């Protein structure tokens, strides 16, 4: 009986969580007259794609979408590779300062990000003098910055996975004549794949939704903007275009959801790596 | 005493072996460390440096400032209120998120038809951008056309639409609710992954021993969730502490500082007052507070085994 009640409560909670999503999609589909009606209704009888059309008509929307996708893909790829290498080093090698390094990674995670935007701006500006592809208004630094900020937690998470692979396996592989390199890529890498999935989810969300760095580092270029910035046109101080904002948010959330659907099976076991400590 | 010669013998060898493994480990770690060093640690060092400089509104460095920026921070009239807000914000949002997530995770750990769909629905607030989620709530809370206001009046909880984002206190707590909303998915999934490490045998054994459901949960399941709860707490404390977009989107337009945390205050000092040096000092303080909070937490709760 008790568990019945808690089940009902949980279904209610799930519905509550789903409501804003429903409201977002619904508002994106409502015709102009209903969006700011004084009598808001939780349904519409005249769905229209007008709001979506306004979003897609934004100058360069396709380009911004591609920019966001490119940054996200590079960040995900980079974080999988680099966090895997680091996690292997931190679990398979016993060296001085290992614990200190782990603590430092956690500390790096705590740095207040918005305070770093100013030094980062100046840094990227001077880097741009030497390497134009990594200067201001370019996508290069955006990839590196998002990658660096998603690495500490990714490494922490993967560590548990690599540690869970028994050392015997490595010895057995060595007896069979496999080099360390072969063992790492042929045996270890596939074994920690679920952990890599969870890592990739986190870094994907991180870079796809990033607003702060994109706005700081790509401040004047129009062609290298990313999606969150593109949607800013609909925010006006006094009169916001709610329909377009909701349609834009819907369009932006869809790729992340697709990503989640693809990896959902591995997500829970993937996070377990972080939990095992 | 007879051991003495052998220890002398072993130590240098050990040290040499260690140095070798350090050298071996370096190429594996180097790319990540260089990146984190350049993009996180170096600017963070620069932030600390800036907090001791006298910098004009136009970015000119007028030299060493000693502790004057820190004094300026502690002389802010609204600082006590902002600190109090920060405490309420962090403790409240993290505690409520974790409590809700524990219940949700317990539910999602059971097998039932449609579990995949429900899990996916729970993920949505995590997938959506925080700026956008906050915007959706701004729209929903609008006194004239917001659905949340409409819902609350229809149910009879309030007699007429209320401007939740028009005053600091209501705005602050509305923003806290949104912060819980966006923290719950990740927290739930971390706890869910913790629940999956508990085998059915363990639970069966507890049942055979005659433990009730409540007893099983608090005496068997809960202790085994400790590492998961620790990860959830640490990551949430860091994220909630440093969270800017929710309060900025929802209460940023309210004049004064009654709805500010140290993070949003830092942002206001940068944006509105253009005092980069004072903002840096506040950021350093902010960082130290998080560091101490996490440090104390790790010491007291000891969530991770030393390996």
From TrEMBL, chain A:
One of its GO terms (biological process) is transmembrane transport. The chain crosses the membrane at residues 61-88, 100-122, 142-162, 183-205, 242-263. The keyword Transmembrane applies. Residues 65-263 form the ABC transmembrane type-1 domain. The keyword Protein biosynthesis does not apply. PROSITE patterns: ABC_TM1 (PS50928). PANTHER family: INNER MEMBRANE ABC TRANSPORTER PERMEASE PROTEIN YCJP, MALTOSE TRANSPORT SYSTEM PERMEASE-RELATED. This is Carbohydrate ABC transporter membrane protein 2 (CUT1 family). It comes from Herbihabitans rhizosphaerae. The lineage of its organism: Bacteria, Bacillati, Actinomycetota, Actinomycetes, Pseudonocardiales.
TrEMBL record, chain B:
It is a multi-pass membrane protein. Residues 83-297 form the ABC transmembrane type-1 domain. Coiled coil: none annotated. InterPro entries: MetI-like, MetI-like_sf, UgpAE/MalFG_permease. It comes from the Bacteria. It is found in: Cell membrane. Pfam families: BPD_transp_1 (PF00528). Its main location: membrane. Signal peptide: none annotated. The keyword Transmembrane applies. One of its GO terms (cellular component) is plasma membrane. Keywords: Cell membrane, Membrane, Transmembrane, Transmembrane helix, Transport. PANTHER family: BLL4140 PROTEIN (PTHR43227), DIACETYLCHITOBIOSE UPTAKE SYSTEM PERMEASE PROTEIN DASB (PTHR43227:SF8). Belongs to the binding-protein-dependent transport system permease family. This is Carbohydrate ABC transporter membrane protein 1 (CUT1 family). It comes from Herbihabitans rhizosphaerae.
